Amino acid sequence: MKNILILLAVALAATSIALAEQIGSVDTAFKFLGPDDKIVVESFDDPEVAGVTCYLSRAKKGGVSGAMGIAEDTSDASLACRQTGKIVLPEKIRNNGHKGRKVFRKRTSILFKTMQVVRFYDQKRNVLVYLTYSDKLIDGSPKNSISCVTIRNREWE
Question: Is 131 part of any domain?
């Protein structure tokens, strides 16, 4: 059992999914019991591309079910990614960026629903494209948002 836990911890550490830092939130609906419904603003750095930070705003359910962690958040989200330093683009992204790579994932319900951010690389235009969307085991949502970061390092050198 101990070996399985160690392997699980190593596997989780090896994944390149970013962790978000909450920047702030605003209440959108009053709940008599439990926390209010909110829009939460979080930031995360791309775990594989130094110099890029993304800001994600998303809906978060309140009330008793939200406080207990069993509410299902809506699929509403917005994304803005910016160059925050010199961008270091690994060769594997330059060569395979069109396939997309998950860089962020947040559980938005107790079972099977997540908000994700996927990065693509547009080699022709030298641009990183970030897409956020929500998926569910059976049926996801067409709601999505994108943000682009042009790779220009001259001003950061």
Answer: yes
- Phi, psi of 59, deg, nearest 5: -80, 145
55 closest CA partner among 41, 67, 65:
41
Domain count, the chain: 1
Residue 2 lies in a domain: no
Tell me whether residue 33 is in a domain. Answer: yes
| Structural domain boundaries enclosing 38 | 16-156
Per-residue pLDDT of the chain (157 residues; tens, 9 = 90+): 554 443 333 344 344 688 889 999 898 888 788 777 888 999 999 999 999 999 999 888 777 776 777 677 777 889 999 999 999 899 989 888 788 999 999 878 777 788 899 999 999 999 999 999 988 767 777 889 999 999 986 655 5
What amino acid is encoded at 24 in this protein?
G
Residue 154: Cβ within 10 Å count:
6
In a domain, 37, yes or no: yes
Q: Against a cut of 0.70, is the pTM above it?
A: yes
